[in-house]
TrEMBL record:
Keywords: Membrane, Transmembrane, Transmembrane helix
Protein name: TPM domain-containing protein
Gene3D superfamilies linked to this entry: 3.10.310.50
Transmembrane segments: 199-221
Domain TPM: 63-183
InterPro entries: TPM_dom
Length: 313
């Protein structure tokens, strides 16, 4: 008689344990794979959101990331901003073109304006014009300090009447130039002329304009020469009073520019007193603006809480 070994429950128990463990491992693998897929999807979705903030311009107040302007057009636009900044502190305008900002143009413009620091520090007078040529969207973002003069309705008017028609015709430089001019005009309390001219009136206005410009040019030249002679006389007087006092050619030129721009009772008319002030703050005491001698609109400004207007073309 053959005796069979009696089976125990242990092998069967081990098989059950191994099967359960394998099932758990497979479940974990499935969960891990699903999690990875979700991460990939979220990452891909994130890539279609708002683009990263571009670097601010190294010089000037313009970044043409969309490459819709020639180098000459960029120089002209920057020169216009420098000129207007030297004439007023009511606004500081910067310009950005991009080819696909992604997400909300309003959020993007506010982020860029804040990151760049458009405007003068503490004045909240910055204005950023953004043109997204990829999405065909436009935005004028205004800081809180300039919104009393340049309201949201004014910004919308500039977009509707200037930027949109110009960009629709691919006249990018013209649109941006006129928009910059109108921003400064509104910021200083003015308004663009809306009334149409007939031919006769236009001819008369042009003729009168030529005469006015000629007279104004003559006056500016004469006034500049007169102010230069006065500044040189002040320099000669200071040098005669103190034989050890001498200025470099650069300092003399800076003093002349300062005296040309500063003519009120608060102006420093003694070169001996002016020199240490100029050394401490060349931008303020050389005929420039407090915002900086470069004329840039990017001077640590802020206050962008959502003012402005958007549009598309």
């Amino acid at each position: 008689m053959v005796h069979r070994r009696k089976r125990t429950a242990i092998p069967r128990l081990l098989r059950l344990i191994r099967g359960h463990a394998m099932k758990r491992m497979m479940d974990v693998a499935r969960i891990t794979g699903a999690t990875a897929a979700v991460v990939l999807v979220l990452t891909a979705c994130g890539g279609s959101g708002t683009e990263a903030t571009p670097e601010p311009p190294g010089q000037g107040s313009l970044v043409d990331a969309a490459d819709v302007l020639t180098s000459g057009e960029e120089q002209s636009l920057n020169a216009l901003i420098v000129e207007r900044n030297s004439a007023t502190d009511a606004a500081r305008v910067a310009v950005l073109t991009v080819d696909g900002a992604g997400g909300s143009i309003e959020d993007y413009a506010r982020s860029v304006a804040t990151a760049w620091g458009v405007g003068d520090q503490g004045a909240d007078n910055g204005v950023l014009i953004v043109a997204d040529t990829g999405e065909r969207e436009l935005r004028i973002e205004t800081a809180d300090g300039v919104r009393d003069a340049l309201s949201d309705d004014d910004a919308e008017s500039i977009i509707d009447n200037v930027l949109e028609p110009a960009f629709a015709d691919e006249e990018y430089a013209r649109g941006l130039t006129e928009a910059v001019e109108q921003v400064y005009l509104y910021a200083e309390g003015g308004e663009p002329v809306q009334e149409p001219f007939n031919i006769g009136l236009l001819a008369a206005v042009l003729a009168g304009g030529v005469l006015v410009i000629g007279a104004l040019t003559w006056w500016i030249v004469a006034d500049s020469r007169r102010r230069r002679r006065a500044a040189d006389e002040e320099l000669r007087t200071a040098e005669k009073a103190d034989l050890d006092f001498r200025l470099t050619d650069e300092q003399r030129d800076a003093y002349r520019k300062y005296r040309y721009r500063k003519r009120g009772d608060d102006a420093v008319s003694n070169p001996v007193v002016w020199l240490p002030l100029y050394a401490a703050n060349p931008a303020l005491y050389s005929g420039g603006t407090a915002g900086g001698s470069s004329g840039s609109s990017i001077n640590g400004g802020g206050g962008f809480s959502g003012g402005g207007a958007s549009g598309s073309y």
